[in-house]
Structure formats: C-alpha cells, structure tokens
Design goal:
The protein has 387 residues and is an alpha/beta fold. The chain folds into two domains: 199 residues, 3-Layer(aba) Sandwich (Rossmann fold); 166 residues, 3-Layer(aba) Sandwich (Rossmann fold), CATH 3.40.50.2000. The protein has twelve helices and 16 strands. The strands form three sheets. Strands 3-4-2-1-7-8-9-10 form an eight-stranded mixed β-sheet, sandwiched between helices. The chain has a six-stranded parallel β-sheet with strand order 13-12-11-14-15-16, with helices on both faces.
Length: 387
C-alpha cells in the first residue's frame, strides 16, 4: 500500500474551503492508501488523532503571521517521514519552504487551491519558493481549468497541471425535498461561508434593496461586526439572520428551509466555492458571481442558477428577485444542479482521480509526471446517489 503524506494548513473543526476539501480527500482516500495528515494546531502544542482511519498530526503553532501558522516542528517531521508521495496543499508558504529544505525524497504532488491575491508583500517574497516547488513537483492539481488558465503562477507549469474538481460528501443533502419548495414564491435566501473580505457578503446585504424576503448568513469571521453594522445602516437588520457557526445537522436544516442559495464572492481568492456544491446537492438554485476561477466551473448560468458580475448589488438583487418570484424555474434549476453535483462533484469521483494520479507519480511508475497523459478526471465513474 502506497504511503502518502498530506500536508495542509489546518483541518476541521477549523472551518474553511481548504479545510473541508482536505477532510473530504483524506476520509475518502484513507481505506486505499497508508495515509498520514499533518496540519497546524490552533494551540502551542502537538496533538495526535487516529479516530478517522488515518494518522492526523496537529503541529504546535507558535504564532500566526500574514495568515500563515508558524509550525517549526514540520521540518523535523518531514526529515523523519518516509512517505513515497507528499501531497502538499497550497497556498501554504512555510510548508513548501520546509519541504524543500528537508530534501524529502518522496514524489511531490502540489494541490494548488488558489493564488495568493491580497497579501502582496508575502506573494512576492514567496514567489521564488513557489517556483522551486512547482518545478520540483511531479504533478500539480487544480480544481478547474479556469484556475489554470487564469493563474499567472501556473502559466509556466501547465504541462504538469491536471484538473481534478473538488468533491464533497453529498449524502446529507441529496434526500432534501426539492418539490416542497416549489409550492409558492420564495422568500428565503441562504449564504454560507467565512465572513472575510473576498466573500462579498456586504454586497449581498446591499442587494436586499432590490428583493423582498429574508437572508440567512451561516458562518462567522473577522467582518461580522461590520456586516451587522451594514444591515443596520441600510435598515434591513430585521430581515438578516446571523447564525454563527452551526453543526452539520443545523447546516442541513438551513439548506432544507432555503429557497435559493447565493455565493456573492468578489475576489479571486474564492477559488472554487464548495458551498455551491452543497447547495446544488440540496437541489437549490444558485446565484453566483463571475470570477475567473473554479467558481465558473460549478454554477452554470441559465441551467443551475444565474451568474452576475461581482461587486454589483443591483445585479445580484435582480437575479435573486427573478428566481424568488418563479417557483417553477427554481425547481428546474435546482434539480439540474443536483444532477450536476452528483455527476461531477462527489468526493468519490475526486478520490478516484487522485488515486490514478498517485499511480502515475509513484516510484514504480517511472519518472515524475511520465504517465500524466493517461489520467483523465472525466473518465472517473459518476457517483451514484446513496440509497
């Protein structure tokens, strides 16, 4: 059995898109490979966990600098670890730098989640290290063709890039009844995510001047107070419900009670938008923004929802209003979204593609990347809805 080391930034219950993706990848791969996962802890101590079927190490974190956890224990671990494949999730500057310094002999797979967009100083300091890492890698995974085409970083390494769409565990969402929502015009809009600069929730709140109904914002983050102040300033605070972080069961309930889902993200830091896949699994139509990232690969305009320009509350509001007032269209788009999610964005399909990649870059497959041309994520068998 191939020994694989995944190096991520954090792991759930720490909440975020990269963390969710890492969890789904590792839980699905665990029965098929000898897996160890290494991430940063939220505390200055190391913790070990084997409860999920693989060895999870949360390294002691001294402090956080420019959103980067400082975990000096990672270098020692990499020096000792004898994994045949190191699967490193980027952006994670310190982890890649320490991997290169440790001179690990395993084959390197870089899972490129997104470019560094906002932290310009860190981006330029990190670029030489990233170029070395990408040159060293046997393969580079991107969640979408749009990310590869739009990333200035990946331009020089396109021959190593492989599209493997992110997938999630759809089982909690597929049983939700889409027909029940189509009985009347809708009033309930749902958005889920961390309250951060690139999520665009301020534009969603501003869009409420253009539609009638209630907005539920599931999540938390550094901009919560600012978003609450925006709702008060615009006089819509009675229509906006801030839930904070919720359990999986509560999250599913919010999807069940919603009439449509909105992803109002406004910056390229939104690399994919996994919450849209949850919504599509729940048969909700999606209103999203047209970002030149994997976001474009998920929601299909006119088919599974509507797509508008980012940062424009009036366009966002018009799209939401048109769908809230058209139950038949919402039902049609919701069912199309569920079919698309099952076909393309299940974690089982994602895992099968990653396993084929491992077979191509493992030592017995020959030189790194030599068999990449034989891997096609589109060839993955479609996931079937759970019984």
């Amino acid at each position: 059995m191939t020994r694989v080391l995944h190096v991520g930034k954090y792991y759930p219950p720490r909440w975020g898109g990269m963390e969710t993706a890492l969890k789904d990848i590792c839980e699905t791969l665990a029965p098929r490979v000898d897996l160890r996962v290494v991430v940063a802890n939220d505390a200055p101590r190391q913790e070990e966990d084997r409860s999920s079927g693989f060895h999870l190490t949360r390294l002691a974190t001294w402090r956080t600098l420019f959103s980067q956890p400082l975990t000096p224990g990672l270098w020692r671990l990499l020096r000792r670890e004898r994994a045949e494949i190191v699967h490193l999730h980027e952006p994670n500057p310190l982890a890649l730098a320490l991997f290169l310094l440790a001179r690990h002999r395993g084959r390197l797979v870089i899972h490129y989640h997104s470019d560094i967009v906002r932290q310009r100083k860190l981006k330029w300091l990190y670029r030489p290290i990233l170029e070395l890492g990408l040159s060293r890698a046997g393969a580079i995974i991107a969640g979408s063709r749009e990310l590869i085409d739009g990333s200035p970083v990946l331009a020089r390494h396109r021959a190593k890039c492989l599209v493997i769409p992110f997938g999630i565990d759809l089982r909690p969402f597929l049983p939700l009844d889409a027909q029940a929502r189509a009985a009347a015009p809708g009033r309930r809009v749902l958005a889920v995510g961390r309250f951060s600069y690139y999520k665009g929730f301020q534009f969603l709140i501003e869009s409420m001047a253009h539609w009638e109904g209630e907005l539920t914002l599931v999540g938390d983050g550094e901009l919560r107070a600012e978003l609450e102040a925006t709702a008060r300033r615009l006089g819509v605070e009675a229509r906006v419900h801030f839930t904070g972080r919720v359990s999986q069961e509560e999250l599913v309930r919010h999807y069940r009670e919603a009439d449509l889902f909105c992803l109002p993200s406004c910056e390229r830091s939104e690399a994919f938008g996994l919450v849209m896949v949850e919504a599509m699994g729940a048969a909700l139509p999606v209103v999203s923004t047209d970002l030149p990232t994997g976001v474009r690969a998920v929601n299909q305009h006119g088919e599974t929802g509507l797509v508008v320009a980012p940062g424009e509350p009036s366009a966002l509001g018009a799209a939401i209003s048109s769908l809230l007032g058209d139950p038949e269209r919402r039902l049609r788009m919701g069912l199309a979204g569920r079919e698309r999610a099952v076909r393309l964005f299940s974690r089982e399909a994602m895992a099968e593609s990653i396993l084929r990649l491992y077979a191509a870059v493992a030592p017995e497959a020959g030189a790194p990347g030599s068999a990449l041309g034989t891997i096609s994520p589109a060839a993955s068998p479609p996931a079937s809805p759970p019984s």
